UniProtKB/TrEMBL annotation:
Recorded GO MF terms: calcium ion binding
Limits of the C2 domain: 39-167, 194-321, 348-476
InterPro entries assigned: C2_dom, C2_domain_sf
Keywords on record: Calcium, Metal-binding
Descriptive protein name: C2 domain-containing protein
Gene source species: Hemiselmis andersenii
UniProt GO cellular component terms: membrane
Length: 528
Protein backbone atom coordinates (compact mmCIF):
# COMPACT_ATOMS: atom_id res chain seq x y z
CA UNK A 1 0.00 0.00 0.00
CA UNK A 2 3.04 2.29 -0.07
CA UNK A 3 3.36 5.04 -2.63
CA UNK A 4 4.34 4.03 -6.13
CA UNK A 5 8.12 4.34 -6.47
CA UNK A 6 8.91 3.77 -2.80
CA UNK A 7 12.04 1.64 -2.37
CA UNK A 8 14.38 0.36 0.32
CA UNK A 9 17.09 -2.18 1.15
CA UNK A 10 17.06 -4.53 4.14
CA UNK A 11 19.42 -7.12 5.66
CA UNK A 12 17.73 -10.28 7.00
CA UNK A 13 19.15 -13.01 9.26
CA UNK A 14 18.60 -16.57 8.10
CA UNK A 15 16.80 -18.89 10.56
CA UNK A 16 16.74 -22.68 10.74
CA UNK A 17 14.66 -24.63 13.26
CA UNK A 18 14.00 -21.46 15.18
CA UNK A 19 17.65 -20.51 15.51
CA UNK A 20 19.77 -18.01 13.62
CA UNK A 21 22.16 -19.68 11.20
CA UNK A 22 25.82 -19.02 12.11
CA UNK A 23 28.36 -18.75 9.35
CA UNK A 24 31.80 -20.32 9.10
CA UNK A 25 33.19 -17.04 10.41
CA UNK A 26 31.01 -17.27 13.52
CA UNK A 27 28.84 -14.40 12.27
CA UNK A 28 25.12 -14.45 11.48
CA UNK A 29 24.23 -15.64 7.96
CA UNK A 30 22.52 -12.71 6.30
CA UNK A 31 20.61 -11.94 3.06
CA UNK A 32 20.18 -8.47 1.62
CA UNK A 33 16.83 -7.74 -0.13
CA UNK A 34 15.86 -4.64 -2.09
CA UNK A 35 12.18 -3.74 -2.65
CA UNK A 36 10.44 -1.22 -4.87
CA UNK A 37 6.69 -0.47 -5.10
CA UNK A 38 5.53 -0.34 -8.72
CA UNK A 39 2.35 -0.25 -10.79
CA UNK A 40 1.42 -3.53 -12.41
CA UNK A 41 2.39 -3.09 -16.08
CA UNK A 42 -0.48 -2.63 -18.51
CA UNK A 43 -1.26 -5.60 -20.69
CA UNK A 44 -0.12 -5.04 -24.29
CA UNK A 45 1.72 -1.76 -23.56
CA UNK A 46 2.39 -1.12 -27.26
CA UNK A 47 -1.36 -0.81 -27.93
CA UNK A 48 -2.47 2.65 -26.81
CA UNK A 49 -5.91 4.30 -27.10
CA UNK A 50 -6.30 6.87 -29.88
CA UNK A 51 -8.42 9.59 -28.28
CA UNK A 52 -12.10 9.84 -29.17
CA UNK A 53 -13.21 6.68 -30.97
CA UNK A 54 -16.77 5.52 -31.62
CA UNK A 55 -18.63 2.93 -33.65
CA UNK A 56 -18.01 -0.79 -34.04
CA UNK A 57 -14.56 -2.25 -33.45
CA UNK A 58 -13.06 -5.73 -33.44
CA UNK A 59 -10.24 -7.09 -31.27
CA UNK A 60 -8.64 -10.22 -32.68
CA UNK A 61 -7.16 -12.20 -29.79
CA UNK A 62 -4.78 -15.02 -30.64
CA UNK A 63 -3.98 -17.66 -28.03
CA UNK A 64 -0.40 -18.44 -29.08
CA UNK A 65 1.22 -20.70 -26.46
CA UNK A 66 0.97 -22.16 -22.98
CA UNK A 67 4.29 -23.11 -21.38
CA UNK A 68 5.61 -24.83 -18.24
CA UNK A 69 2.38 -26.62 -17.47
CA UNK A 70 2.24 -28.68 -14.26
CA UNK A 71 1.83 -32.44 -14.23
CA UNK A 72 -1.95 -32.99 -14.12
CA UNK A 73 -2.37 -36.64 -15.14
CA UNK A 74 -1.46 -39.80 -13.24
CA UNK A 75 1.05 -42.46 -14.17
CA UNK A 76 4.69 -42.19 -15.05
CA UNK A 77 4.06 -40.83 -18.54
CA UNK A 78 1.00 -38.65 -17.83
CA UNK A 79 1.57 -34.93 -18.34
CA UNK A 80 -1.26 -32.46 -19.16
CA UNK A 81 -3.98 -32.23 -21.85
CA UNK A 82 -4.46 -28.45 -22.04
CA UNK A 83 -7.07 -26.29 -23.74
CA UNK A 84 -7.82 -22.61 -23.24
CA UNK A 85 -11.20 -20.89 -22.75
CA UNK A 86 -11.44 -17.13 -23.33
CA UNK A 87 -14.60 -15.51 -21.93
CA UNK A 88 -15.79 -12.13 -23.18
CA UNK A 89 -19.12 -10.47 -22.37
CA UNK A 90 -20.67 -13.85 -21.48
CA UNK A 91 -19.40 -15.68 -24.57
CA UNK A 92 -16.87 -18.50 -24.30
CA UNK A 93 -14.28 -19.14 -27.04
CA UNK A 94 -12.43 -22.47 -26.72
CA UNK A 95 -9.26 -23.72 -28.35
CA UNK A 96 -8.54 -27.25 -29.46
CA UNK A 97 -7.14 -29.69 -26.87
CA UNK A 98 -3.46 -30.67 -27.02
CA UNK A 99 -2.74 -34.11 -25.60
CA UNK A 100 -0.03 -35.12 -23.10
CA UNK A 101 2.27 -32.12 -23.16
CA UNK A 102 3.81 -29.48 -20.91
CA UNK A 103 4.11 -26.87 -23.69
CA UNK A 104 1.37 -26.27 -26.25
CA UNK A 105 1.24 -24.06 -29.35
CA UNK A 106 -2.34 -23.16 -30.20
CA UNK A 107 -2.19 -20.09 -32.49
CA UNK A 108 -5.99 -19.88 -32.55
CA UNK A 109 -7.63 -16.48 -33.12
CA UNK A 110 -10.97 -15.30 -31.76
CA UNK A 111 -12.83 -12.13 -32.77
CA UNK A 112 -14.22 -9.96 -29.98
CA UNK A 113 -16.63 -7.28 -31.23
CA UNK A 114 -18.21 -4.20 -29.67
CA UNK A 115 -21.00 -2.14 -31.24
CA UNK A 116 -19.62 1.18 -29.98
CA UNK A 117 -16.03 1.51 -28.77
CA UNK A 118 -16.86 4.80 -27.03
CA UNK A 119 -19.06 2.94 -24.52
CA UNK A 120 -16.28 0.65 -23.37
CA UNK A 121 -16.46 -2.92 -22.07
CA UNK A 122 -18.51 -3.77 -18.99
CA UNK A 123 -16.71 -6.84 -17.63
CA UNK A 124 -13.23 -8.34 -17.45
CA UNK A 125 -12.17 -10.98 -19.97
CA UNK A 126 -11.23 -14.20 -18.19
CA UNK A 127 -8.72 -16.64 -19.71
CA UNK A 128 -8.74 -20.12 -18.17
CA UNK A 129 -6.47 -23.09 -18.91
CA UNK A 130 -8.05 -26.51 -18.39
CA UNK A 131 -6.74 -30.07 -18.31
CA UNK A 132 -8.96 -32.37 -20.32
CA UNK A 133 -9.86 -35.72 -18.72
CA UNK A 134 -11.39 -38.73 -20.40
CA UNK A 135 -13.47 -40.21 -17.62
CA UNK A 136 -13.93 -37.37 -15.15
CA UNK A 137 -14.62 -33.65 -14.97
CA UNK A 138 -11.90 -31.50 -16.53
CA UNK A 139 -9.51 -29.91 -14.04
CA UNK A 140 -8.78 -26.19 -13.95
CA UNK A 141 -5.05 -25.49 -14.21
CA UNK A 142 -5.34 -21.75 -13.60
CA UNK A 143 -6.58 -18.46 -14.97
CA UNK A 144 -5.94 -14.76 -15.39
CA UNK A 145 -8.04 -11.77 -16.42
CA UNK A 146 -7.72 -8.69 -18.60
CA UNK A 147 -9.54 -5.84 -16.83
CA UNK A 148 -12.56 -4.25 -18.53
CA UNK A 149 -10.90 -0.82 -18.31
CA UNK A 150 -7.86 -2.05 -20.24
CA UNK A 151 -10.01 -3.87 -22.79
CA UNK A 152 -11.92 -0.64 -23.38
CA UNK A 153 -8.63 1.11 -24.12
CA UNK A 154 -7.57 -1.64 -26.53
CA UNK A 155 -10.80 -1.27 -28.50
CA UNK A 156 -10.12 2.46 -28.81
CA UNK A 157 -6.60 2.00 -30.20
CA UNK A 158 -5.80 2.82 -33.82
CA UNK A 159 -6.86 0.27 -36.43
CA UNK A 160 -3.99 -2.10 -37.06
CA UNK A 161 -2.40 -1.66 -33.62
CA UNK A 162 -1.12 -4.96 -32.26
CA UNK A 163 0.99 -6.45 -29.52
CA UNK A 164 1.83 -9.59 -27.56
CA UNK A 165 1.84 -10.21 -23.83
CA UNK A 166 2.92 -13.04 -21.53
CA UNK A 167 0.51 -13.73 -18.66
CA UNK A 168 1.13 -15.82 -15.56
CA UNK A 169 -1.49 -18.37 -14.56
CA UNK A 170 -3.00 -18.03 -11.09
CA UNK A 171 -4.81 -20.70 -9.07
CA UNK A 172 -6.24 -20.10 -5.58
CA UNK A 173 -4.47 -16.76 -5.46
CA UNK A 174 -1.03 -18.23 -6.16
CA UNK A 175 1.17 -18.49 -9.21
CA UNK A 176 0.85 -21.87 -10.96
CA UNK A 177 4.21 -23.63 -10.88
CA UNK A 178 5.01 -25.89 -13.81
CA UNK A 179 6.66 -29.30 -13.87
CA UNK A 180 9.99 -27.52 -14.42
CA UNK A 181 9.51 -25.21 -11.38
CA UNK A 182 8.96 -22.25 -13.68
CA UNK A 183 5.86 -20.08 -13.76
CA UNK A 184 3.14 -21.44 -16.06
CA UNK A 185 2.56 -18.77 -18.70
CA UNK A 186 0.16 -18.00 -21.55
CA UNK A 187 1.11 -15.80 -24.51
CA UNK A 188 -1.68 -13.77 -26.15
CA UNK A 189 -1.49 -11.55 -29.22
CA UNK A 190 -4.06 -8.83 -29.97
CA UNK A 191 -4.84 -6.80 -33.06
CA UNK A 192 -7.33 -3.94 -33.41
CA UNK A 193 -9.50 -4.20 -36.53
CA UNK A 194 -12.53 -2.76 -38.20
CA UNK A 195 -15.61 -4.94 -37.98
CA UNK A 196 -15.96 -6.47 -41.47
CA UNK A 197 -18.82 -5.17 -43.61
CA UNK A 198 -21.75 -7.45 -44.29
CA UNK A 199 -21.49 -9.42 -47.55
CA UNK A 200 -17.96 -8.17 -48.34
CA UNK A 201 -17.81 -9.71 -51.82
CA UNK A 202 -20.68 -7.51 -53.02
CA UNK A 203 -19.32 -4.17 -54.20
CA UNK A 204 -21.34 -1.10 -55.26
CA UNK A 205 -21.28 0.37 -58.76
CA UNK A 206 -20.53 4.10 -58.88
CA UNK A 207 -23.05 4.88 -61.65
CA UNK A 208 -26.02 2.82 -60.41
CA UNK A 209 -29.40 4.57 -60.50
CA UNK A 210 -33.08 3.86 -60.84
CA UNK A 211 -35.12 1.15 -59.08
CA UNK A 212 -33.51 -1.96 -57.59
CA UNK A 213 -34.67 -4.86 -55.44
CA UNK A 214 -32.74 -6.58 -52.68
CA UNK A 215 -33.99 -10.10 -51.92
CA UNK A 216 -33.01 -11.03 -48.36
CA UNK A 217 -33.45 -14.65 -47.36
CA UNK A 218 -33.55 -15.47 -43.65
CA UNK A 219 -31.97 -18.89 -44.05
CA UNK A 220 -31.37 -20.37 -40.59
CA UNK A 221 -30.53 -19.88 -36.93
CA UNK A 222 -28.24 -21.99 -34.73
CA UNK A 223 -27.15 -22.13 -31.07
CA UNK A 224 -30.34 -20.64 -29.65
CA UNK A 225 -30.55 -20.12 -25.89
CA UNK A 226 -32.99 -22.00 -23.71
CA UNK A 227 -36.05 -19.76 -23.41
CA UNK A 228 -38.81 -22.07 -22.13
CA UNK A 229 -39.44 -24.18 -19.01
CA UNK A 230 -37.94 -27.44 -17.77
CA UNK A 231 -38.47 -29.50 -20.92
CA UNK A 232 -38.86 -26.58 -23.32
CA UNK A 233 -36.21 -25.18 -25.59
CA UNK A 234 -37.05 -22.22 -27.82
CA UNK A 235 -39.85 -21.42 -30.30
CA UNK A 236 -38.07 -19.02 -32.65
CA UNK A 237 -39.31 -16.73 -35.38
CA UNK A 238 -37.54 -13.80 -37.06
CA UNK A 239 -38.84 -10.33 -37.90
CA UNK A 240 -37.05 -8.30 -40.58
CA UNK A 241 -37.63 -4.56 -40.22
CA UNK A 242 -36.84 -1.94 -42.88
CA UNK A 243 -38.14 1.61 -43.28
CA UNK A 244 -40.98 0.96 -40.85
CA UNK A 245 -42.05 -2.30 -42.50
CA UNK A 246 -41.96 -5.67 -40.78
CA UNK A 247 -41.65 -9.09 -42.43
CA UNK A 248 -42.15 -12.16 -40.22
CA UNK A 249 -41.02 -15.75 -40.73
CA UNK A 250 -42.89 -18.84 -39.60
CA UNK A 251 -42.49 -20.00 -35.99
CA UNK A 252 -40.57 -23.24 -35.40
CA UNK A 253 -41.46 -25.03 -32.17
CA UNK A 254 -39.17 -26.39 -29.43
CA UNK A 255 -35.73 -26.28 -31.02
CA UNK A 256 -32.25 -24.83 -30.62
CA UNK A 257 -31.70 -24.49 -34.37
CA UNK A 258 -33.90 -24.32 -37.45
CA UNK A 259 -34.07 -23.48 -41.14
CA UNK A 260 -36.55 -20.95 -42.50
CA UNK A 261 -35.31 -20.11 -46.01
CA UNK A 262 -37.94 -17.37 -46.31
CA UNK A 263 -37.24 -14.51 -48.72
CA UNK A 264 -38.36 -10.89 -48.35
CA UNK A 265 -37.96 -8.18 -50.99
CA UNK A 266 -36.72 -4.69 -50.17
CA UNK A 267 -37.18 -2.14 -52.95
CA UNK A 268 -35.35 1.11 -53.61
CA UNK A 269 -36.98 3.32 -56.19
CA UNK A 270 -33.77 5.21 -56.91
CA UNK A 271 -30.52 3.67 -55.69
CA UNK A 272 -28.66 6.93 -56.26
CA UNK A 273 -30.39 8.03 -53.02
CA UNK A 274 -29.18 6.49 -49.77
CA UNK A 275 -31.29 4.00 -47.82
CA UNK A 276 -33.36 5.78 -45.18
CA UNK A 277 -32.97 3.22 -42.38
CA UNK A 278 -30.99 0.25 -41.13
CA UNK A 279 -32.24 -3.27 -41.80
CA UNK A 280 -32.77 -4.99 -38.44
CA UNK A 281 -33.50 -8.72 -38.02
CA UNK A 282 -34.90 -9.52 -34.58
CA UNK A 283 -35.24 -13.02 -33.15
CA UNK A 284 -38.24 -13.75 -30.94
CA UNK A 285 -39.32 -16.68 -28.79
CA UNK A 286 -43.01 -17.40 -29.20
CA UNK A 287 -45.01 -17.97 -26.05
CA UNK A 288 -48.48 -19.47 -25.91
CA UNK A 289 -49.80 -17.76 -22.79
CA UNK A 290 -47.66 -14.64 -22.41
CA UNK A 291 -45.93 -11.93 -24.38
CA UNK A 292 -43.27 -13.18 -26.79
CA UNK A 293 -39.69 -12.73 -25.56
CA UNK A 294 -37.03 -10.95 -27.60
CA UNK A 295 -33.88 -13.07 -27.98
CA UNK A 296 -31.71 -10.50 -29.74
CA UNK A 297 -31.08 -8.86 -33.09
CA UNK A 298 -28.61 -8.10 -35.86
CA UNK A 299 -28.28 -4.97 -37.92
CA UNK A 300 -27.18 -4.12 -41.46
CA UNK A 301 -26.44 -0.37 -41.39
CA UNK A 302 -28.24 1.94 -43.84
CA UNK A 303 -24.89 2.92 -45.32
CA UNK A 304 -24.11 -0.70 -46.20
CA UNK A 305 -27.64 -1.32 -47.52
CA UNK A 306 -27.18 1.64 -49.87
CA UNK A 307 -24.01 -0.01 -51.22
CA UNK A 308 -25.77 -3.37 -51.65
CA UNK A 309 -28.61 -1.75 -53.63
CA UNK A 310 -26.00 -0.23 -55.97
CA UNK A 311 -24.25 -3.52 -56.70
CA UNK A 312 -24.51 -5.21 -60.08
CA UNK A 313 -27.75 -7.01 -60.88
CA UNK A 314 -27.36 -10.68 -59.96
CA UNK A 315 -24.77 -10.10 -57.23
CA UNK A 316 -25.40 -12.47 -54.32
CA UNK A 317 -23.77 -13.64 -51.10
CA UNK A 318 -24.35 -15.42 -47.81
CA UNK A 319 -23.28 -14.16 -44.39
CA UNK A 320 -23.39 -15.47 -40.81
CA UNK A 321 -24.31 -12.87 -38.18
CA UNK A 322 -23.98 -13.06 -34.40
CA UNK A 323 -27.12 -12.09 -32.49
CA UNK A 324 -26.72 -9.30 -29.95
CA UNK A 325 -28.92 -8.35 -26.98
CA UNK A 326 -28.25 -5.28 -24.82
CA UNK A 327 -24.85 -4.86 -26.41
CA UNK A 328 -23.73 -8.42 -25.70
CA UNK A 329 -23.54 -11.43 -27.99
CA UNK A 330 -26.31 -13.92 -27.27
CA UNK A 331 -24.92 -17.20 -25.99
CA UNK A 332 -26.76 -20.39 -26.91
CA UNK A 333 -27.62 -23.38 -24.75
CA UNK A 334 -24.36 -24.98 -25.92
CA UNK A 335 -22.22 -21.96 -24.88
CA UNK A 336 -21.70 -20.99 -28.52
CA UNK A 337 -22.67 -17.74 -30.19
CA UNK A 338 -26.25 -17.60 -31.42
CA UNK A 339 -25.99 -17.04 -35.18
CA UNK A 340 -28.32 -16.28 -38.10
CA UNK A 341 -27.49 -16.93 -41.74
CA UNK A 342 -28.78 -14.40 -44.29
CA UNK A 343 -28.57 -14.60 -48.08
CA UNK A 344 -28.90 -11.54 -50.30
CA UNK A 345 -29.38 -11.09 -54.02
CA UNK A 346 -29.51 -7.85 -56.02
CA UNK A 347 -32.36 -7.90 -58.54
CA UNK A 348 -34.19 -5.68 -60.95
CA UNK A 349 -37.62 -4.57 -59.84
CA UNK A 350 -39.95 -6.87 -61.83
CA UNK A 351 -41.97 -5.50 -64.74
CA UNK A 352 -45.59 -4.67 -64.02
CA UNK A 353 -48.01 -7.29 -65.38
CA UNK A 354 -45.33 -9.75 -66.50
CA UNK A 355 -47.91 -12.07 -68.14
CA UNK A 356 -48.84 -9.34 -70.64
CA UNK A 357 -46.15 -9.29 -73.36
CA UNK A 358 -45.96 -7.17 -76.52
CA UNK A 359 -46.83 -8.93 -79.77
CA UNK A 360 -44.31 -7.50 -82.23
CA UNK A 361 -45.39 -4.87 -84.77
CA UNK A 362 -48.79 -3.51 -83.78
CA UNK A 363 -50.50 -0.37 -85.08
CA UNK A 364 -53.87 1.31 -84.96
CA UNK A 365 -56.19 2.06 -82.06
CA UNK A 366 -56.05 -0.03 -78.87
CA UNK A 367 -57.78 0.03 -75.49
CA UNK A 368 -56.41 -0.94 -72.09
CA UNK A 369 -59.07 -1.67 -69.50
CA UNK A 370 -57.59 -0.98 -66.06
CA UNK A 371 -59.52 -2.22 -63.03
CA UNK A 372 -58.70 -0.83 -59.60
CA UNK A 373 -59.46 -3.95 -57.54
CA UNK A 374 -58.32 -3.39 -53.94
CA UNK A 375 -56.30 -1.21 -51.59
CA UNK A 376 -54.98 -2.97 -48.47
CA UNK A 377 -53.11 -2.15 -45.26
CA UNK A 378 -53.94 1.55 -45.33
CA UNK A 379 -52.44 3.74 -42.59
CA UNK A 380 -54.55 5.51 -40.00
CA UNK A 381 -55.32 8.90 -41.54
CA UNK A 382 -58.22 10.21 -39.43
CA UNK A 383 -58.28 11.39 -35.84
CA UNK A 384 -60.07 9.91 -32.87
CA UNK A 385 -60.09 6.41 -31.47
CA UNK A 386 -62.29 5.00 -34.21
CA UNK A 387 -61.01 7.02 -37.18
CA UNK A 388 -59.32 4.97 -39.90
CA UNK A 389 -59.10 6.07 -43.56
CA UNK A 390 -61.60 7.15 -46.25
CA UNK A 391 -59.77 6.06 -49.41
CA UNK A 392 -60.40 6.72 -53.07
CA UNK A 393 -58.09 6.17 -56.05
CA UNK A 394 -57.26 8.52 -58.92
CA UNK A 395 -55.72 7.10 -62.10
CA UNK A 396 -54.12 9.67 -64.42
CA UNK A 397 -53.45 8.88 -68.09
CA UNK A 398 -52.37 11.33 -70.78
CA UNK A 399 -53.77 14.26 -68.82
CA UNK A 400 -57.12 12.62 -67.98
CA UNK A 401 -58.05 11.66 -64.39
CA UNK A 402 -60.25 8.68 -63.56
CA UNK A 403 -61.57 8.53 -59.99
CA UNK A 404 -63.09 5.68 -57.99
CA UNK A 405 -65.83 5.95 -55.41
CA UNK A 406 -64.81 6.76 -51.82
CA UNK A 407 -64.93 4.02 -49.18
CA UNK A 408 -65.55 5.26 -45.65
CA UNK A 409 -63.63 4.44 -42.45
CA UNK A 410 -61.64 1.38 -43.52
CA UNK A 411 -58.12 0.00 -43.77
CA UNK A 412 -58.93 -2.33 -46.69
CA UNK A 413 -61.13 -1.34 -49.61
CA UNK A 414 -62.51 -3.31 -52.57
CA UNK A 415 -63.27 -1.02 -55.52
CA UNK A 416 -63.42 -3.24 -58.64
CA UNK A 417 -63.93 -0.19 -60.82
CA UNK A 418 -62.77 -0.31 -64.45
CA UNK A 419 -61.48 2.57 -66.56
CA UNK A 420 -60.80 2.52 -70.31
CA UNK A 421 -57.50 3.98 -71.55
CA UNK A 422 -57.36 4.46 -75.35
CA UNK A 423 -54.58 5.23 -77.84
CA UNK A 424 -55.12 6.14 -81.49
CA UNK A 425 -52.04 4.28 -82.71
CA UNK A 426 -50.34 1.62 -80.56
CA UNK A 427 -47.20 1.80 -82.71
CA UNK A 428 -46.52 5.35 -81.48
CA UNK A 429 -46.47 4.37 -77.85
CA UNK A 430 -47.45 6.43 -74.80
CA UNK A 431 -45.86 9.77 -74.03
CA UNK A 432 -46.08 9.91 -70.21
CA UNK A 433 -46.25 7.65 -67.18
CA UNK A 434 -49.60 6.75 -65.69
CA UNK A 435 -49.82 7.92 -62.08
CA UNK A 436 -52.04 6.12 -59.56
CA UNK A 437 -52.69 8.06 -56.35
CA UNK A 438 -54.58 6.99 -53.24
CA UNK A 439 -56.27 9.80 -51.30
CA UNK A 440 -57.95 10.07 -47.91
CA UNK A 441 -61.21 11.97 -48.18
CA UNK A 442 -61.86 14.61 -45.52
CA UNK A 443 -65.16 16.34 -44.76
CA UNK A 444 -64.02 19.75 -43.64
CA UNK A 445 -60.48 20.06 -44.98
CA UNK A 446 -58.38 19.31 -48.02
CA UNK A 447 -58.07 15.62 -48.87
CA UNK A 448 -54.78 14.05 -47.81
CA UNK A 449 -52.57 12.10 -50.16
CA UNK A 450 -51.80 8.62 -48.80
CA UNK A 451 -49.29 7.69 -51.48
CA UNK A 452 -48.82 6.93 -55.15
CA UNK A 453 -47.02 4.82 -57.71
CA UNK A 454 -46.53 5.04 -61.46
CA UNK A 455 -46.55 2.72 -64.45
CA UNK A 456 -43.76 3.88 -66.77
CA UNK A 457 -44.70 5.10 -70.25
CA UNK A 458 -42.37 2.51 -71.80
CA UNK A 459 -44.20 -0.34 -70.03
CA UNK A 460 -47.62 1.11 -70.92
CA UNK A 461 -46.57 1.22 -74.57
CA UNK A 462 -45.70 -2.50 -74.37
CA UNK A 463 -49.05 -3.31 -72.77
CA UNK A 464 -50.94 -1.54 -75.60
CA UNK A 465 -48.99 -3.66 -78.13
CA UNK A 466 -49.88 -6.98 -76.47
CA UNK A 467 -52.27 -9.41 -78.12
CA UNK A 468 -55.98 -8.62 -77.89
CA UNK A 469 -57.40 -10.40 -74.84
CA UNK A 470 -54.12 -10.47 -72.91
CA UNK A 471 -54.67 -9.75 -69.23
CA UNK A 472 -52.95 -9.83 -65.88
CA UNK A 473 -52.99 -8.54 -62.30
CA UNK A 474 -50.28 -6.80 -60.33
CA UNK A 475 -49.80 -5.68 -56.74
CA UNK A 476 -48.18 -2.25 -56.38
CA UNK A 477 -46.66 -0.70 -53.26
CA UNK A 478 -47.65 2.84 -52.39
CA UNK A 479 -44.81 5.36 -52.04
CA UNK A 480 -44.88 8.70 -50.20
CA UNK A 481 -41.89 11.06 -50.03
CA UNK A 482 -39.68 8.37 -51.54
CA UNK A 483 -40.52 5.78 -48.89
CA UNK A 484 -42.86 2.83 -48.73
CA UNK A 485 -46.19 3.67 -47.07
CA UNK A 486 -46.56 1.57 -43.92
CA UNK A 487 -50.06 0.53 -42.99
CA UNK A 488 -51.73 0.40 -39.59
CA UNK A 489 -50.71 -3.27 -39.35
CA UNK A 490 -46.99 -2.60 -40.12
CA UNK A 491 -47.38 -4.11 -43.60
CA UNK A 492 -46.81 -2.36 -46.92
CA UNK A 493 -49.82 -0.46 -48.20
CA UNK A 494 -50.66 -2.06 -51.57
CA UNK A 495 -52.95 -1.53 -54.55
CA UNK A 496 -54.05 -4.34 -56.87
CA UNK A 497 -54.70 -3.46 -60.52
CA UNK A 498 -55.97 -5.71 -63.32
CA UNK A 499 -55.43 -4.89 -67.01
CA UNK A 500 -56.94 -6.30 -70.20
CA UNK A 501 -55.94 -5.42 -73.77
CA UNK A 502 -58.94 -4.76 -76.04
CA UNK A 503 -59.89 -3.40 -79.43
CA UNK A 504 -61.33 0.09 -79.33
CA UNK A 505 -65.05 -0.41 -80.06
CA UNK A 506 -66.15 1.02 -83.42
CA UNK A 507 -68.82 3.75 -83.49
CA UNK A 508 -72.35 2.62 -84.50
CA UNK A 509 -71.36 -1.08 -84.53
CA UNK A 510 -74.74 -2.17 -86.02
CA UNK A 511 -74.02 -0.26 -89.26
CA UNK A 512 -71.86 -2.37 -91.58
CA UNK A 513 -70.32 -1.25 -94.89
CA UNK A 514 -71.42 -2.65 -98.21
CA UNK A 515 -68.69 -4.03 -100.45
CA UNK A 516 -70.15 -2.66 -103.74
CA UNK A 517 -71.08 0.83 -102.58
CA UNK A 518 -70.02 3.70 -104.90
CA UNK A 519 -71.02 7.18 -105.92
CA UNK A 520 -72.05 10.14 -103.75
CA UNK A 521 -73.60 9.61 -100.30
CA UNK A 522 -74.72 11.84 -97.42
CA UNK A 523 -74.30 11.07 -93.70
CA UNK A 524 -76.79 12.95 -91.51
CA UNK A 525 -75.41 13.26 -87.96
CA UNK A 526 -77.86 14.51 -85.35
CA UNK A 527 -76.45 15.96 -82.17
CA UNK A 528 -79.34 14.66 -80.06
Amino acid sequence: RASIGSSASETFSIVAEGKAVVGNDKKLCEVVLNVKVCEVPLAFPTVVPAGEVSGPRRLEVTVETVKSLPKMDGGIFGKCDPYVVLSFEGVEHRTQTHKNTYDAEFNETFALDVDDASKGVRSDSLVTVWDWDTASKDDEVGQFSIPAARLSELFRASIGSSGSETFTLIADGRVVVGHDRNKCTVVLHVKVCDVPVAFPNITPSSDAKGPRRLDITVASVAHLPKMDGMFGRCDPYAVLGYEGLEYKTATVKNTYECEWNETFSLDSWDVSNDAASDCVVTLWDWDAASKDDEIGSLKIPASRLSELFRASIGSSASETFSIVAEGKAVVGNDKKLCEVVLNVKVCEVPLAFPTVVPAGEVSGPRRLEVTVETVKSLPKMDGGIFGKCDPYVVLSFEGVEHRTQTHKNTYDAEFNETFALDVDDASKGVRSDSLVTVWDWDTASKDDEVGQFSIPAARLSELFRASIGSSGSETFTLIADGRVVVGHDRNKCTVVLHVKVCDVPVAFPNITPSSDAKGPRRLDITVA
